[in-house]
Amino acid sequence: EAGVVQSPRYKIIEKKQPVAFWCNPISGHNTLYWYLQNLGQGPELLIRYENEEAVDDSQLPKDRFSAERLKGVDSTLKIQPAELGDSAVYLCASSPAGTTDTQYFGPGTRLTVL
Amino acid sequence: RKEVEQDPGPFNVPEGATVAFNCTYSNSASQSFFWYRQDCRKEPKLLMSVYSSGNEDGRFTAQLNRASQYISLLIRDSKLSDSATYLCVVNGGYNKLIFGAGTRLAVHP
């Protein structure tokens, strides 16, 4: 079974530029998460989707971050404009319907903002 | 105060040693608890769930003390391949996982 797929794996951009990350969850997983992980810290939830509905986006900085999961499968996270402090690893995870306890993570996108 | 707190380490131990990690959480209403493992520059992966009665999986034993809001992970007979960061994770309610910052383990020959 294929795992969570993310692209790109690495991205280097200059500040004020836009950037987008893509995630394809495990087939059949209704719940999709985007996390931010800073160096030396644990992942922090940005947004959680149940199918195409964002059910928890309380930690998403909405002035510059946006996300979508239009058909309830793959998802895109966007930052516009990027700031130096956005440099981090952006992790996507998914879980089957009915549970959020066991989450399967993708390899992440490592973003560097110069 | 962070919702989930861990000693960041690193714990440097020789092969074959027994090592224990501790974690405390602040939300007394938390219902489920886990340890995830994260290798350097890789994604976190579920290591084991933690139950009130304690549970064991091979060389790994997890314990939960709800009264003290304390979770532990014991690794016996450490292997080089156990070197990683161990993340303490709590379901903080509303189906939201809260991750600790992790404890780094380095097992040396």
Helical fraction of chain B: under 10%
Q: Can you tell me the overall shape of chain A? A: globular
Q: Tell me the number of strands of chain A.
A: 11
The largest β sheet of chain A comes out as:
7 strands, mixed
The chain-level structural class of chain B is: mainly beta
Evaluate the radius of gyration of chain B. Answer: 13 Å
Shape of chain B: globular
**Spatial gap, N to C terminus of chain A:** 37 Å
SSE string of chain A, helix = H, strand = E?
EEEEEEEEEEE
Taking pLDDT < 50 over at least 5 consecutive residues as the criterion, the unreliable ranges of chain B are none
Beta strand count of chain B? 11
Largest interface: A-B, 17 and 21 residues
Q: Could you give the distance between the termini of chain B?
A: 37 Å
Name the beta content range of chain B: over 45%
Number of helices of chain B: 0
The amount of helix of chain A comes to under 10%
What fraction of residues of chain A sit in β-strands? over 45%
In quaternary terms, these chains amount to heterodimer
Topology readout:
The complex is a heterodimer of chains A (about 110) and B (about 110).
Chain A (H helix, E strand, L loop, with lengths): L4 E3 L2 E4 L5 E6 L6 E7 L6 E7 L2 E4 L8 E4 L6 E5 L8 E8 L8 E2 L3 E5 L1
Parallel strand pairs in A: 2-11
Antiparallel strand pairs in A: 1-3, 3-8, 4-5, 4-9, 5-6, 7-8, 9-10, 9-11
Chain B lengths: L3 E3 L4 E4 L4 E7 L7 E6 L5 E7 L4 E3 L2 E6 L4 E6 L8 E8 L5 E3 L3 E6 L1
Parallel strand pairs in B: 2-11
Antiparallel strand pairs in B: 1-3, 3-8, 4-5, 4-9, 6-7, 7-8, 9-10, 9-11
Summary keywords:
heterodimer, A: 114 residues, mainly beta, seven-stranded mixed sheet, B: mainly beta, six-stranded mixed sheet, 0% helix
